[in-house]
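Reviewers of the previous submission asked for a worked example of the structure-prediction workflow described in the proposal, so we include one complete record here. The input consisted solely of the amino acid sequence. No template or homolog information was supplied to the procedure at any stage.
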Amino acid sequence: MTQTPSVDEATAPASRVVLVTGGNRGIGRTIAEQMVSAGHRVAVTSRSGDAPEGTLAVAADVTDSDSLDTAFATVEEEYGPVEVVVANAGITADNLLMRMSDDEFTSVVDTNLGGSYRTVRRAITNMIRAKFGRIVLISSVSGLYGVAGQSNYSSSKAGLVGLARSITREVGSRGITANVVAPGFVRTDMTDALPEKQQKEYLQAIPAKRFAEPDEVAKVVQWIASDDAAYISGAVIPVDGGLGMGH
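From that input alone, the workflow returned the following structure tokens.
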């Protein structure tokens, strides 16, 4: 005899297979932890292989397609096809444009933009087959607002907007969404270590007059990857206290 699901079971959010690149530290780690707390099966890629408790750790380099392919194969074997991709892995190499080397520019763009492209490309086939997918690209206010000394980083983060919108045009009819979350200044060990004068200058520019907490970014990522946001795609969601004003 078939049992009718309880109200709680019928309305409970679906448990998804989630992959967070660069999820071993910083905002990526908090995103992974938030996804675990929401009941998802979460895998985390990092070069070191480290990962938060409750997640599947897979070593991967987002600049290496073969490395990513091996990581995805491991996740698929353990959990099944990846349904939610959070492309978070990124690096910086700040310098003024006149002093920036070719390697400083290309390495940042290849990791931040190229790495997101490679990650999504590996995930997209199974999403198309399943007629379901959530792609979340972690950008930055730097990519929308522009920051002196970050022409490489700003370019790579701005490029994610075009990537998300192209993906939306290509596969939006297949139940797949692609969105960008653009954090501003987030309270981390790095921002806490900034000189007090510099912190005050940053805070002065932020209408909210405070830095974001990492979980404020993570909760937005969780929501945009949920069934509740199924009709949102190609969007840029700033989590910056009003700093960029939607740019």
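The mean pLDDT is 93. We consider this example representative of the routine output the project will generate in years two and three.
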